[in-house]
Write a structure and sequence with these properties.
The chain is α+β, with helices and mostly antiparallel strands. It has 16 helices and twelve strands.
Amino acid sequence: MNAPADGRLRQQADQLPFSNSFAALPPVFHTRLQPTPVPAPYLVGASANAAALIGLDADALARQEAVDAFSGNAILPGSEPLAAVYSGHQFGVWAGQLGDGRAILLGDVPARDPWPPARLELQLKGAGMTPYSRMGDGRAVLRSSIREYLCSEAMAALGIPTSRALCVTGSDMPVMRETVETAAIVTRMAPSFIRFGSFEHWFYNERNEELKLLADHVIDRFYPALRDEAQPYRALLSEVTRRTADLMAQWQAVGFMHGVMNTDNMSILGLTIDYGPFGFMEAFDARHICNHSDHQGRYSYQMQPRIGQWNCFALAQALLPLVGEVEDAQAAVESYKPTYDAKFNQLLHAKLGLLDTQPDDDKLFEAMFGLMQNNHVDFTLFFRQLGNLKLENPQADEPLRDLFIDRPAFDAWALQYRSRLRQENSRDEDRKARMHSVNPKYVLRNYLAQVAIEKAQNKDFSELARLLSILEKPFDEQPENEQYADLPPDWASTLEVSCSS
């Protein structure tokens, strides 16, 4: 083992002390299998921050032994690879059995500070076919793997609950999507990859014994305090509802759109998982659909909070045999909206630098979003620039005003905003520091990811590494990287992401 400057031991990949909590569930919950090797794998990128969470030496990830292990070409000692079964609603329609069609769970390892859970599961996404692949090939491509890798780490840096991405490995093996691409595997980490659809699977198959086993596993491993509740399964539903509502508020506040909020993509721990056709809002449009496959706009930006609630009701239906009474299940889920509203309100106050709450604040927020909608103002730039506003110097607003087509309309809103700030004797520098600590300067815009992807497709991984380092410090000024905070170029408007992304 290596001893870094912080005094903690860092281990090699083959020294990870695997346990296999999910594998201990009965065989009906999963299928044991080996990943399918890829030819000549190579390292595309590795996250030192994610590696530190499990005490792994990030530099060692470049060694061929680690590359082989995280490509599925070699099995790490103590791991018991498996693919889990689950079902789900996809675009609001019951899809029946799904499962890990291209993800293989290796097992779980001890976590280090600052991650709160005791253990983290490691999962290879794109490691080959499983019994749940249906018509798929079990593979992921370099393009989608890089997007998940970057966004997982970017969301973590933004303080939003998420799975993490340890590394991406690639291979020149061809994979057919819309065109021929090359294979890649992303190593994901989370306390658990159990999802709402994991419970739906047993409910719709009328397997209440397995439903209870799964619920007990989740409570005992992740929510042990709920075991002392009078109704632990209702308490589980209530806690998952609360976490989901909080997560939706955090997505909305940073302008993140998941793109595929199917129940099989919803974490039982309230994490952001399964990054596919995601996007960060640029020119603000509450109706924006980031997923080119979402023809009805079910998962648009403005629909995300409602779909989060819909998914919680789907989970409540699945847990009903354990909760017992319909009224109890409804009561647990009905906490969703007040929880979401309170969290989003709190986040909006922070984004605008407001220290207290006034009765008319909702009108100020509504007018702000209406103004952003009418002018299609860049979401990230608006909130970041708003932090530079000078209370007694409207002439300093020019960079902010320039984001608007209708500048007089902005001036009218800014007048209201300044009046509101004066009510609490707001101080410019203090407010700016607070606002810049919650309004990022750098987010993973699609065009930034695309530039890194195109270079990586030519075996140049320098831009991927640079972009990751920028996204790991989203609230810092980083003057040397100023161009990464600019408005997207014109060509970026042609980019589309779909379920194959």
